[in-house]
Amino acid sequence: MDTNNNPQADRADDDTLTNRQGHPITNNQNIRTVGNRGPATLENYDFIEKISHFDREKVPERIVHARGAGAHGYFEAYGTVGDEPVSKYTRAKLFQEKGKQTPVFVRFSTVVHGLHSPETLRDPRGFAVKFYTEDGNWDLVGNNLKIFFIRDAMKFPDMIHAFRPDPVTNIQDPRRFFDFCANSPESFHMVTFVYSPWGIPANYRMMQGSGVNTYKWVNNEGKGVLVKYHWEPKQGIKNLTMKEAAEIQGKNFNHATQDLYEAIERKDYPEWELLVQIMEDGPHPELDFDPLDDTKLWPEDLFPWRPVGRMVLNKNPENFFNEVEQAAFGTGVLVDGLDFSDDKMLQGRTFSYSDTQRYRVGANYLQLPINAAKKRVATNQEGGQLRFYNDKAPGQNLHVNYEPSSMGGLKEAEQVGTEYTPYVEGNLVRESIERQSNTKQAGDTYRHFEQWEKDELINNLVNDLAICPQVIQDKMMALAEEADEDYGRRLRAGLMEKSKMKDGFKMEIGEEMHPLGAKDAHQAVKDAIEKGHEQDPY
Predict the structure, then answer these.
(1) 3-state DSSP helix/strand/coil % of the chain, to nearest 5
(2) Which residues have C-beta within 8 Å of that of residue 315, sequence separation ≥ 6?
(3) Which of 72, 113, 137, 143 is catalytic?
(4) Residue 322 is inside which H or E element, if any?
(5) Is 65 among the catalytic positions?
(6) Is 318 found in the same domain as 183?
(7) Are residues 182 and 295 in the same domain?
(8) For residues 488, 493, 498 and 502, what is the CA-based torsion angle, rounded to 10 degrees?
(9) If we measure between CA atoms, which residue out of 189, 160, 192, 190 comes closest to residue 177?
(10) Phi and psi for 292 in degrees, rounded to 5?
(11) Helices marked H in 186-241 — which ranges?
């Protein structure tokens, strides 16, 4: 083709603007109109294509974990778990060889708040890691805190509804938060963490991560053990008080995203060590809690943390939407050598997470580069929104999209290692686990806090519980007293003092609505009116 006399000829290095059909855009400043003042014509194809795509350029916001930041990197295995060969416990290939590196993508997030909410709000932080292993993807989806509010997936929608903004006012209301928590005593340990400085990490680089749920490892002989995952930051751990967070928020509500991006750009690559706790599979009646209960920590003196590898983040996303917003994780995404436990929260999450991604991003979300496995993929799946290639094997008969077949279709893979087949017996019931011990570990955590952490915890709890009905205050004080005598005494005294200060005064409309732990939030509404500068109309 002669391109010398054809200024519109396609050139790979051309930097001129086109539309999605490949048509050159010669005027990107003006729509087509009758005269330069209008009206516009309907056949404004370039404009209609541009604006109609703009109208659709966001996918639905995540219900939880909406606000996020992410980065690429690698996981490097130690080949051991503590002082033992890792093969003793798991046959997962990514752990076996010392120095073996596996590409990863990590998404950090806040949990309850929306896509553009401040990163200083009191909230757990998501910590999700996608490992692109030679056996396919493994998603380790967790939080910065090592426990959770509830132990049964049936309660999850109610919990999130209670923690998110009021459906009438669209403002977070601590009364709703504590109404749920006071009537769900298993949440008290998590409340103790969230209302302490641990509820506001300083940034994403300086926070821990955890798988939260109990998983299993399976070795080559088909033996399984229970396992908990922990990420420990090499940068150290830093948290904020409510006052410090408010000051930072007034200057920058994207501070954590900016911190992560800038650290990687200056080659100060954040690093975490991955450690595991291992427990023999079984109910462990000698413990005062169920090892599958995700509201509990496994005592480190009984189940030591054993290092298995390290993770380094060394590359920022090239496009936030493509790589961070469309990144899709699921607790059911495991590779050979990793397995589920019977943890009831994990079982419920495993359906919910992948189902959410199909709703948000589409049936073919796993074909997007950020989510696709970095290995051969061959399925018999067909169709669906935004499907753009077929998952077919080389030489496969394209007429055969089913299995089994004798005409060149896909066939089952060979089982590697002995299959893990745990014995399960029992009646089908709808019951809570027996060993609940809802407050014991909360007391241990309180006693472990430094004095300034205890002071911050009590102050934050008092500020929010003071606006709650007496029945909710009574339940929360009873849980605190059950957890630790000093914890309960200080909370009760703080609420009594707060009650005296308010005695004789009627609470103003709106005073109860504010982010969790915030002090004098309602005053900001008045300040905006009183301190605002009057202007003449123009």
Answers:
(1) 30, 15, 55
(2) 71, 72, 73, 264
(3) 143
(4) none
(5) yes
(6) yes
(7) yes
(8) 120
(9) 160
(10) -90, 0
(11) 188-194
Considering only 154-158, 381-385, 511-515, which range has the smallest mean pLDDT? 511-515
Annotated binding site for heme: 353
Structure tokens at 204: 């994403």
Q: Does residue 51 lie within any of the structural domains? A: no
Q: Is residue 389 included in any domain, yes or no?
A: no
CB atoms within 10 A of CB 22: 7
Quick one: pLDDT band at residue 3, thresholds 50, 70, 90?
very low
Interval 404-445: pLDDT, tens: 889 998 888 888 899 999 888 889 888 899 999 999 999 999
**What are residue 231's DSSP bridge partners?**
209, 274
Output the known binding site. Answer: 353
Contacts of 132 (CB under 8 A, 6+ apart): 102, 103, 104, 105, 373, 374, 375
Distance CA 533, CA 538 (A): 15
pTM: 0.91
Catalytic residue among 65, 72, 113, 255: 65
Q: Which amino acid is at 462?
A: V
CA distances from 293 to 90, 310, 342 (A): 23, 27, 10
Same domain as 353, residue 445: no
